[in-house]
What we know:
Elements lengths: L3 E2 L2 E2 L7 H25 L1 H9 L3 H30 L6 H27 L12 H34 L10
Antiparallel strand pairs: 1-2
Amino acid sequence: MTPVSAGRACAPPGRWEGWRSRLAVLPVLLLSPLGLLAVLGVAPELARLFGSGSTARSALAFYIALNVDRVVLSLVLVYAYRALGPGRPAWGPLLCGSFFTGAFISGFLQGCVIFLAIPVNLGSPFGGLRSVGAAVGVTLWLWLFTALAVLGYAITLSLERRWTPTSTPGSSV
């Protein structure tokens, strides 16, 4: 019996399966500087808006940062869900699920930045070791980002099952 994933049979893992997966990640690694360039390209404008002292301009800077992060993360998720996941969702559910998940992760990313900016001694629960407290805090956020990405993939596959037309007995295709 062959393993089943996302409703279709998968080939049993072979000798080159690990290398195929590693090679499939290369486009993300090669294009990641472009995503970083997009995020860093708006940084001077964000610094100017945040430094103005105006609440409205700070809110605009927060909104711009949130949307730039959302677009960059969503494009990475589209590729990851389509090329790296065990199932290959159709484009409609893939785009909806990826951009939905990208919006959530970018929002939580903004929350992580705010969390790191809070002037609290993170080491107090760990006997005053700030580096341990910071490592635990960052690890918690990384776990949360990973859980959101996996949940987004599950939602994408669920959307695909809902949107895929199924033939009923007696209907002509």
